[in-house]
Write a structure and sequence with these properties.
Number of helices: 4
Number of domains: 1
Mean pLDDT: 78
Helix content: 10-25%
Distance between the termini: 6 Å
Strand content: 35-45%
Structural class: alpha+beta
Low-confidence stretches: 117-125
Length: 134
Amino acid sequence: MALEGPVQCFLDANESFEIKRGNFSWPVIDTDLTVTTFTREGPIGFTLHTPHWSADYQLTIADGRITFTCDGPEPTVTTSRQAQPFSEYLNQHGLRILFEDEAILVGWCRLRCEGRDRGRGLGRRAWRKRNLAI
């Protein structure tokens, strides 16, 4: 399992996305996301790393939504136009979640299986047939 993104940081070349906690800020594209919880049920834990600090998060998939929460002091994403907690930013823009067997969860619960589905989205019935082992 792996996490990628948020893709918004890569799409807008004219905007600087920084993540800040305390007196330290760092470009979002230079941070690292490390999965810390490998279970078949419950939230997926991950850590956001910078050279100066790290922050622990939980990713929950329920009721057709992906929700992100921070477990402790939360960093802020800043751009020239706004500043907001990183969990709020992730709740708006999402991450790419890569599962085993080439299953990818993109944005707001769109599942793709690269090897088999060739980019077609999966309906509710197909979800039941997928083993989203972490």
